[in-house]
Here is the input.
Amino acid sequence: MGDSAPLQGGDAGDARKGAFRDKKHEQVAWGATILTLAGYFILMLLVPLAPDVLARPLLGEGGLGSLGFVVGIGVLLLQIGVSIWYTKWINKLDQQS
Amino acid sequence: MNVTAVTLFVLFVALSLGITTWAARRSKSRSQFYAAASSLSGFQNGVAFTGEFLSAATFLGITGIYFTFGYDGLIYAIGAAMGWPVLLFLLADRLRAMGKYTLTDVLADKLKAPSIRIFAAVATVITLILYLVAQMVGAGLLIELLFDVDYLVSVVVIGLLMLIYVLFGGMVATSWVQIVKACFLWVLGLALAIAVLIKFDFSIGKLYAAAVAAHPRGEKLLEPVGFPTVGASLSAALTQAVGIAGLPHFIMRFFTVPNVAEARKSAAYATGLIGAFYIVMVIIGFGAIAILANNPEYTTGPALLKNGNNMAPLYLAQALGGDVFLGITAAAVFATILAVVAGLTLAVAASMSHDVFATVIRKGKVTEAEELKVSRWSAIAFGAAAIALSVVFRNENITFLVVTALSIAASSTFPLLFLACFWKPLNSTGALVGGTVGLLTAVAGIILGPTVWVAIFGYPQPIFPYQYPTIVGLPVGLGVTMIVSLMTAKK
Here is the structure.
């Protein structure tokens, strides 16, 4: 059919057809996934188990500084930070190889 | 009739038609039509991903949840963002490195049986038509409400515009329309948040105090209410964490960049832009409460907005900046809907032409021109079906459409995709049986759950207790696939 080849413009790394570059890459990728999702799942467990704890003030007089908001926004920021770090790290490794 | 909204919407449509005309010259070949010839940079595709992801359900729906419940808005927002870790860390490399066009191509790279292509194409159509109908019903109702335009006319206009983008511009047009819309929506969201903060002297404390004073829940605004049991909460979390990775139109977008590095960058940019937008929405959500919740101009009762709580961001814009700001916000919402429906239609058209016609029916003996012709006719058929279903579902509760789509993705296509990438013993028989069982489990769970059994059929209690059936569907889909693969493994 002619569609089995990679699209034009693919680089040598594409020939791996999806394997992690090495064991360390695999471990970091899984670690990043678990780290970012763990924060989310912990929050989602707190929702039914301890909703009043989430409403507790953490910063200043409370309000949007509650534990729930700090954890929630922290989960989003953690995800953004880990994603940026991971992308820079693995792309740099690919360039060096 | 809001002149600003109509003017800006017409301008957006004119711009998008201009993009489509430009893109038409770049959509002659299969790789151009399906994947923009892999010509997008990581940043461009990241913004396009953001546009694809931030739908009207995000902007209107999540703000509506903030307005109704408070903290739950953040829970839903975070959940929506949580599909990206799996996509970026585990799947982006594999998807791009395979160098294909569709989700089915990815599965078929490992599973050669034609039945897998047919199954994946069927799952694609079911998942995406549910999403599409939900978007179009929302658009039709909104246009009818704001501009007093007949509902049928509204959905036909939306349907025709999305078909023009897809038929003539393919992925090139769709991508650039998404990019323009993402920028529009992001800037609008930021402007709305800044307007809220100006009103409260940039004091989060003042904003919160005003919200608490205005809302009937008062201090309880900070307590979550939407997921009262561990099962309900975990099922929703699972759906969000893996459902997005099983959505065909997202998978397709990984093939629009030239290599794996750019694919990773695009997922990372999308993660950042989407996550940051959701943080901005905290201000929008609480601003809506503080300014609208006990304002008789916008409410029919305490924290009950006229025409539904999904109107929160529109009314907030009007309260802060008059009809001009309302018009800008409404235009952004319409642009959002148009861009999203175009992306969904392209994914279905690609699946029908590439996966079913070219590969299964013609067994690869097809010219590019023939395949693209079928793709365009498929888009027309799908668009017509979506318009017809939008009329049928006009007065129905459409929430279950989106929930079903995501649940099917989480219970059926994601398990197959994940196992195809990470589990060697997977075979076609296991994938077909497991994928089908996962899909049927998800559908059964939705029908027997609160979204359909109670809200639509009117029974007092659901048979399946959770809104999202993924807590059952995902392990069933994975388990059946693995067991059948092992049982039918060739010695």
The radius of gyration of chain B is 22 Å.
